[in-house]
Amino acid sequence: MADNSSGDSAERRVGGADPDHPSRERKSSLQQSKDRSKWNLLLIPAIVIPLLVPLYNRVEPTLFGWPFFYWGQLACIALGVATTSLVYQKTKTRKDPDVGWASEATERRWS
Amino acid sequence: MDGIKKTELIIFIGFFLLVTVIGFYAARWRRPTDLLHLDEWGLGGRNFGSWVTWFLVGGDLYTAYTFVAVPALMFGAGAAGFFAVPYTIVLYPIFFLILIRLWSVSHVRGYVTPADFVRARFDSPTMALLIAITGIVATMPYIALQLIGIEAVLKTMGVEGEIPIVAAFAILALYTYTSGLRAPALIAFVKDILIYLTIIMAVIVIPAKLGGWDFIFGAAEEKFGSGSGILLPQTGQLQYATLALGSALALFLYPHSITAVLASRNRDVIKRNMSALPAYSLALGLLALLGFMAIAAGTEPVGGDNNTIVPALLESQFPDWFAGVAFAAIGIGALVPAAIMSIAAANLFTRNIYKEYFVKDATPRQEARVAKVSSLVVKAGALLVIIFIDPQFSIDLQLIGGVIILQTLPAVAIGLFTRWFHRWALIAGWVAGMGIGMLMLYNIQRIDPATGEVIRAHFGGSAFSLSKLGFDTPTPIYTGFVAIAVNLLVTVIATFILRAMKQPEGTDSTRLEDYFADEDDPRVQELALGIGEGERVVGAAKGGRADDR
Known about the structure:
The complex is a heterodimer.
Chain A: H1 9-12, H2 24-40, H3 43-48, H4 53-56, H5 68-91, H6 101-110
Chain B: H1 6-25, H2 38-41, H3 50-61, H4 64-77, H5 84-109, H6 114-122, H7 125-156, H8 163-179, H9 182-210, H10 212-224, H11 237-253, H12 255-262, H13 267-276, H14 278-288, H15 290-297, H16 309-317, H17 320-358, H18 364-388, H19 391-406, H20 409-412, H21 423-442, E1 446-447, E2 454-456, E3 463-465, E4 476-478, H22 479-500, H23 524-529, H24 534-543
Antiparallel strand pairs in B: 1-2, 3-4
């Protein structure tokens, strides 16, 4: 298979622009991958907030006898679940024909 | 100790036998066309759906040692032990963003290990070898720690000596050998049901028995000093946050996490799981509080070993039969990750050492055979570590393990996004990060908080005082964090230098679209080898293309 040796320099830079590539599908797939990444930004608060210790390193308010330090961090789990679920719903490929680009593009190439 | 606790032991052994049967049966589960292929033995056919993946990854990441050690840390050190919660929260968005690309490129190119990826991406067998060795070295003590988890349970039941552990591990080794990744995947169902049952019971029954959560937190506050005893001290916050983040980054680089993720069927399975897996973090958070419950209940660890605090608490609070169930949960909880870890280490050895340096044209059959045997070797090694070396040593190694596995971050994780780093710069960065990390860990003392005495002169923990680096502050930071920062810095500088010197960068054998590929995409290996190789084609047909949609 020729693919193993080809790899022009533009291709190697993942995420970079791909101006020289002749195929139109290829360009549109890049565009779509960028669209997808916008939803992914939602994951950043889910990574950052649980690490901001001063936010939750306190006793008050307590909940069922739990200091905030403990229940606040467990509440962050809900934040994580909410954001990852939302991003999953928005970026899943199965029910969204538009996002099935990768398979289409490669299928065409190989067939 | 008052002899062997019969009821608990009988129930424990009963569950152990049950999972043994399941482990051997697993070879026939999801009926592989041929188990003698690394994709089948080592990755369960790369075909696990959402449910199996949830149990498998959960069973893999939340190990018995976690269940034993986190509450023990809470018992011994208070709030700092709760870092496991933010650690396992930030883990999933990171998985979501990064590992999904690794899944795609591995799916298309047929990679089994992270080192396979690095080799192809950076055209550097040397870096791949370093990744493989790092992975194996970091995984071994982790397996040994699972044994410590089983040992803690056995000790509490009054069972002493090495023979029971050797027997348990021999059985585990045998069914892992025959069934591969399918065994832990199937056993994980039992493990998790038992774990959740135990936690729910513990959280409902114990606080009610002890007199409520107020009393539990009150007891902890009393133990750790009034005022902020159950909070982090001002100086402990940076260590807490960096340890949580560093551990999360380390965990997803561990070969066993990657193995479990690569075994899933498609991208959506992984994504869906990243939003469902935090259920385990909730369980872990509740479990961590068992450490405080033990304080409130006045539980004493067996033989002064803090790791027995959870089993000892459960023993004292539950009726015998349920304590037996809980012990089985912890014991089986050790078997699942130990099996996956040994498979991951075996995959690394087979693909990146055996095939790379010994038998370059190994067939899939040979690969599978070598992997099966090396999984036995890995487990035997872990067993020897436990038997002949002080258990404290494996805890130290595990501490080191987190720091060293982090050093693969630039090549494995950042490499999924960019190939900007020069392959030789990655090696330089790895060497620098590894060196600094080891040096720092070596220089960390453990000091008894009460007396101020030095308990251990070296490898006393992972919190490194910034004052030793010349900063005027008593605040410590997680060692791995500094080591990876040094690693990245060296990698970047070396890349600039090597670029300027026009050193050859090698060829990337992956393509941009590989990183977004999904289940239905054809796999390069199949297309390349398909006609000559019957096994591969059969595997591909089963791997499912358009027909199962």
